[in-house]
Design brief:
alpha/beta; about 40% helix; about 220 residues; two-stranded antiparallel ribbon; Uracil-DNA Glycosylase, subunit E
Length: about 220
């Protein structure tokens, strides 16, 4: 099957697309989308890659699952479509940005504006059945997205990986720490944030500091 993904990624992920697990995964996803309501919409499944070409990637944020409510997921982790109320984790992300870099709270929760600047907003699982969190886990997506992280680590240098919460922190084993920058903290979900594991991590100013030291353009968060 020809996967609809930004051409810049294809040369690096071609071997994944040809593997049996990936063909089985795509067949599963096709069947799910035929028989059930699933998110995000088909054309947006690989949106994280389409908005952030391989060569342009500077920062990687790892999420777990797409939002499973109507009109929320747009293919980027933590992001929702324009005009959709901000989910709790996204509210806490924006609150941290407000205090960290002294900016105003944004109206839109659509993070395409980050992705277009080189932030890969990668969910470990790229699809989900409506109202059933985790319903597409352990079907092959994690194998694929782990391969993406490994390939970025191998082929690029000086990426900034933001690993929020226990699930994302486990991905650190896939990253060459001698070549890249890894920032970790608690998850922005209310459960973690209210315990003091999220607010005050300064990840957004720290990321921009790293990028500027490398002579790269900072992210307009």
């Amino acid at each position: 099957m020809d996967v609809k993904i930004h051409p810049s990624w294809k040369q690096y992920l071609k071997t994944e697309f040809e593997q049996l697990y990936f063909k089985r995964l795509i067949n599963f996803v096709k069947q799910e989308y035929t028989q059930h309501t699933c998110y995000p919409k088909g054309p947006h499944i690989f949106a994280a890659f389409d908005h952030c070409p391989f060569d342009a990637t500077k920062v990687v944020i790892i999420g777990q699952d797409p939002y499973h409510g109507p009109n929320q997921a747009n293919g980027l982790c933590f992001s929702v479509k324009d005009g959709i109320p901000h989910p709790p984790s996204l509210i806490n992300i924006f609150k941290e940005i407000q205090t960290d870099i002294n900016t105003t709270y944004p109206k839109s929760g659509n993070l395409e504006r980050w992705a277009d600047q080189g932030v890969l907003l990668l969910n470990a699982t790229l699809t989900v059945r409506a109202h059933q969190a985790g319903s597409h886990q352990n079907k092959g997506w994690e194998t694929f997205t782990d391969a993406v992280i490994r390939k970025l680590s191998q082929e690029k240098e000086n990426l900034v990986f933001l690993l929020w919460g226990g699930y994302a922190k486990k991905k650190a084993t896939l990253i060459d720490k001698s070549k890249h920058h890894i920032l970790t903290s608690g998850h922005p979900s209310p459960l973690s944030a209210n315990r003091g594991y999220w607010f005050g991590n300064h990840h957004f100013s720290k990321t921009n500091g790293i990028l500027q030291n490398l002579g790269k353009k900072p992210i307009a968060w």
